[in-house]
Write a structure and sequence with these properties.
Blueprint: E1 64-69, E2 72-78, E3 84-93, E4 101-114, E5 123-130, E6 136-143, E7 152-159, E8 166-176, E9 178-190, H1 193-210, E10 244-249, E11 252-258, E12 264-273, E13 280-293, E14 302-309, E15 315-316, E16 325-328, E17 337-344, E18 351-361, E19 363-375, H2 378-417, E20 447-452, E21 455-461, E22 467-470, E23 473-476, E24 483-496, E25 504-512, E26 525-526, E27 533-534, E28 543-550, E29 557-567, E30 569-581, E31 592-594
Antiparallel strand pairs: 1-2, 2-9, 3-8, 4-7, 4-9, 5-6, 5-8, 10-11, 11-19, 12-18, 13-17, 13-19, 14-15, 14-16, 14-18, 20-21, 21-30, 22-29, 23-29, 24-28, 24-30, 25-26, 25-27, 25-29, 28-31
Length: 597
């Protein structure tokens, strides 16, 4: 079984360049009564105190402070080290298509600002628009004067893309060598129709002057128009699997991928060679979908899985968060849509691996009309990295408070149940009476929720020889854990070992670093993996097994996958899965004891 570790996006901006690297035109600052940003002047205090409401949270010692001068509050940002991103961040929700343009204004002053490695590494504001998928639609910059010793006003205008649902403002020190920026206000106000039309006309003239033809795609036959030698399938796209067909509509070809059964991996594959020295690539996919239903986990859906590979064919770590392009989580039909992503290419990457279609979804149809990979300009990659860095700095400040809250929630759960695994006894069923909370949605064939002597348990019955059937759980760990005790109650009947490895009933484990916000941020898998717990084939009655594991430094999550792994046959019942902080008293290394349910 090949198992990918899907991660969901934290922030992957796309820089749109049609004159996008131009500084936005300076205009008068917007009037306060037209504000789109609440508490734009930082005067209202957050409930926790010591920081303005709506502007994230304050982490002491990070170079950020909320100051007052002549009765007025302002935010001070002080560079702690060369190259640091020290900014304020604000994400403003807007109604798509309702606002044609905005004026963004900044009131600031600076002291001791020294540019970093490039002139752009200095004091500035970044203005971005994105849609609900997180894609950046347009972006630009308001530079700050490095010698603005007194309060200074700077502003600019931008058109709002029709599909934009978020206006993002990031202001402060962006990779400067040193300096201090004081922010007295960050404002945004809608443009009137006449002003927006005038700005649109000016930008159209500028765009025409810098327009360049679209580069040729590196994906041969990415539009699926050229047939193979037999004329029944597009060239360069392997051979069709059951459920795949080559269709035509209005004179244009496309691939159709139709789910054959729940949990199927039905995807087309392509490894795209990358030219040496390229710093970034843009991936564009035109697709539509019908009736897509996610599988046992919510990231089992319709998507393109994206990986960078090195010369040895092994994955290469890329910058940013999730690389995948998700088509939909909604079963409702979609029309043709084009999704675009910009990626920074790792220095040792030689290929871009693409798998597009249905990834273990419960049902659905995906049509693919075109897949393009083109080189991105150095300016676009630099803009993307700036946005990622600014967002990461803001997120780090805000996450510190979230991490403290997570530890408080973990302490409350341990006090109530003694277990880091929510609903590890399978007894709670508040979302639906037919399935236990926290354990997927129960669509996998062979998995059922059963009752024995008034107590619930999970039953896994091998659906066919040499197949893998498992449960999945990502367990969030408490900060500072040195070791954990893992306990399971199980029984195993009708078991026959498989010929393919591992061919037994077991629990596989992986430790991960990264944010502790559920499965949405995997982080990095830490090596080596803990040794698995292998269930005894003689445990026909309820049996308890325990194992103690040291927690690697930096680990924040434990991935657990109990199940039947490539067996010929078998029925595995799980009555409880428990993970608890290790106590001072030694736990059995792999003790196993029979006992009553």
């Amino acid at each position: 079984m090949e198992f990918f570790s899907p991660r969901f996006p934290v922030f992957r901006p796309l820089a749109v360049l049609a004159a996008a690297l131009l500084v936005i035109p300076a205009v008068a600052a917007p009037a306060p009564d037209a504000a789109l940003i609440p508490n734009a002047d930082f005067q209202k205090e957050t409930g926790e105190g010591g920081w303005p409401e709506g502007w994230g949270s304050l982490t002491p010692g990070t170079g950020k402070s909320w100051e007052v001068e002549e009765g007025k509050h302002f935010v001070r940002l002080v560079s702690q080290q060369p190259g640091q991103v020290q900014t304020l961040y604000r994400d403003i929700k807007i109604a798509a298509g309702k606002i044609k343009g905005v004026t963004v204004g900044i009131r600031y002053r600076t002291s001791g600002v020294k540019p970093g490695d490039t002139p752009a590494d200095s004091a500035r504001a970044l203005i971005l628009f994105k849609d609900n998928s997180g894609r950046i639609l347009d972006s630009s910059t308001i530079p700050f004067s490095g010698s603005a010793a007194g309060w200074t006003e700077a502003a600019g205008q931008m058109l709002v893309p029709a599909s934009a649902t978020h206006l993002i403002v990031i202001a402060g020190l962006v990779r400067a060598a040193a300096g201090t920026v004081d922010l007295g206000a960050i404002t945004a106000a809608p443009l009137g129709d006449a002003e927006a039309e005038k700005l649109a006309a000016a930008q159209a003239v500028a765009a025409q002057a810098v327009a360049t033809p679209s580069p040729e795609s590196w994906v041969a036959n990415g539009d699926f128009e050229t047939p193979n030698a037999n004329g029944d399938w597009p060239a360069h796209w392997g051979n069709p699997a059951p459920g795949m067909s080559w269709e035509a509509e209005e004179g244009k070809h496309f691939l159709r991928i139709v789910s054959q059964k729940p949990g199927d991996n039905l995807m087309v594959y392509r490894a795209v060679p990358l030219k040496k020295g390229v710093k970034g690539v843009e991936l564009s996919i035109r697709s539509r979908s019908t009736g897509v239903q996610h599988g046992d986990n919510e990231w089992f859906d319709a998507r393109t899985m994206v990986r960078f590979l090195g010369a040895d064919g092994q994955p290469v770590q890329a910058e940013g968060g999730n690389l995948d392009v998700v088509f939909t989580h909604n079963p409702a039909p979609t029309g043709w849509m084009t999704q675009t992503r910009l990626y920074a290419v790792p220095a040792d990457a030689t290929q871009l691996q693409l798998l597009a279609g249905l990834f273990r979804a419960a049902a659905g149809t995906v049509d693919l009309a075109e897949i393009r990979v083109t080189p991105a300009s150095d300016e676009a990659v630099e803009r993307m990295k700036l946005c990622d860095a600014a967002y990461g700095a803001w997120k780090g400040d805000d996450n510190a408070r979230m991490e403290r809250r997570i530890d408080q929630q973990i302490d409350a759960q341990l006090a109530a149940t003694g277990n880091l695994v929510f609903n590890g006894s399978f007894e709670l069923a508040t979302r639906t009476p037919s399935w236990p909370d926290g354990w997927g949605n129960g669509t996998a064939p062979g998995v059922s929720w059963e009752t024995d002597a008034g107590r619930h348990f999970m039953r896994l019955v091998s659906p066919s020889p040499e197949k893998t059937l498992m449960l999945y759980r990502m367990v969030v760990l408490k900060t500072g854990l040195k070791a954990i005790d893992v306990t399971l109650r199980y029984r195993l009947t009708n078991f026959a070992k498989g010929d393919r490895m591992p061919g037994d009933a077991r629990v596989a484990f992986h430790f991960f670093s990264g944010g502790r916000f559920g499965h949405l941020e995997y982080g990095k898998q830490l090596a080596p993996d803990p040794s698995p717990i292998v269930f005894s084939s003689k445990a026909a009655e309820w049996t308890e097994i325990r194992r103690r594991y040291p927690v690697p430094e930096g680990a924040t999550k434990l991935q657990m996958m109990p199940g039947l792994w490539n067996v010929q046959s078998g029925t595995l019942d799980l009555a409880e899965i428990r993970v608890a902080p290790a106590t001072d008293s030694p736990a059995a290394g792999a003790s196993e004891t029979p006992g009553a349910r």
